[in-house]
From TrEMBL:
Biased composition (Polar residues): 217-230
Source taxon at top rank: Bacteria
InterPro entries: DUF4004
Region (Disordered) residue spans: 211-245
Designated name of the protein: DUF4004 domain-containing protein
């Protein structure tokens, strides 16, 4: 379902200038701006649910994050930071009982961001669809060969079943899926929406890992003025972190896992 630019501005209360500034800052993907013919000539339309969710998110968080931080978190590009088992244990959305099974199936010690995202999604599906451990693990087994090649989160994960067997398809956002009618689609999940939630909720973890990877922490340790600068900014950081936590809670409430088509 689409929404026109005029309807969007009226419904969200933002200005024309804000909309296009957020586009320039990469907060709103350029491909969401779709020119179509109308009775007035050419008019711009957007995917309704996605643009409304995105604008609400920006409005809630723009006072506590810089536009650069928001753009980085909202980007469908996956981070190149690797995650180990201890990192996975910090992410409460990953089912702890499934972790050993996920480890066995992927058979590696360092996990990509796409791996982590898939663990979160499968954990959520296990809960919502009441899947057992074997059914959940089988979904990962069927998808694992594709995860290495995925460098972006801009996909839809489609779950369908036949009797007690569950299967998955990963599709580009705008690509139609023509499924054998003997199968029933039970879930469609925008991976980028889930990614946004995880990136915001665990932004400190991801940013810390990225800084450590780039050697920023060692630079600070060797700088004699680093401790003074750190101490002077600590109070301000604590205040801003409390604001971020409030907004993370709000953010997680208004975003949906399931795609509405």
């Amino acid at each position: 379902m689409l929404i026109s630019k005029k309807e969007l501005l009226a419904q969200t209360g933002i200005s024309y200038g804000q909309l296009y500034r957020w586009k320039r800052e990469r907060l709103i993907p350029e491909e969401w701006f779709m020119k179509q013919s109308s009775y007035t000539g050419q008019e711009t339309f957007f995917p309704k649910e996605q643009i409304l969710n995105r604008i609400k998110m920006i409005q809630e968080l723009k006072d506590n994050y810089s536009l650069e931080e928001l753009a980085k978190m909202l980007s469908p590009e996956s981070t190149e930071v690797g995650f180990d088992l201890e990192d996975l244990k910090e992410i409460e959305e990953i089912n702890s009982d499934m972790l050993p099974i996920f480890q066995t199936i992927l058979d590696k010690k360092t996990y990509s961001y796409i791996d982590v995202l898939m663990f979160v999604i499968l954990s959520k599906l296990k809960e919502e669809l009441n899947l057992n451990e074997k059914q959940t693990g089988t979904l990962l087994e069927g998808l694992k060969m594709h995860l290495e090649g995925m460098k972006t989160t801009d996909y839809i994960l489609i779950i369908f079943n036949q009797e007690t067997n569950y299967f998955a398809v990963i599709s580009q956002e705008q690509s139609p899926i023509y499924l054998d009618t003997r199968f029933e689609i039970v879930k469609k999940i925008r991976m980028n929406e889930v990614s946004n939630q995880i990136k915001f909720k665990y932004s400190k973890v991801f940013n810390s890992d990225m800084e450590n990877k780039n050697g920023d922490s060692s630079k600070g340790a060797s700088d004699p003025s680093y401790s003074d600068r750190q101490a002077s900014s600590e109070g301000e950081n604590n205040r801003s972190n409390s604001k971020k936590k409030e907004n993370e809670d709000i953010f997680l409430k208004f975003n949906n896992w399931e795609v509405r088509l």
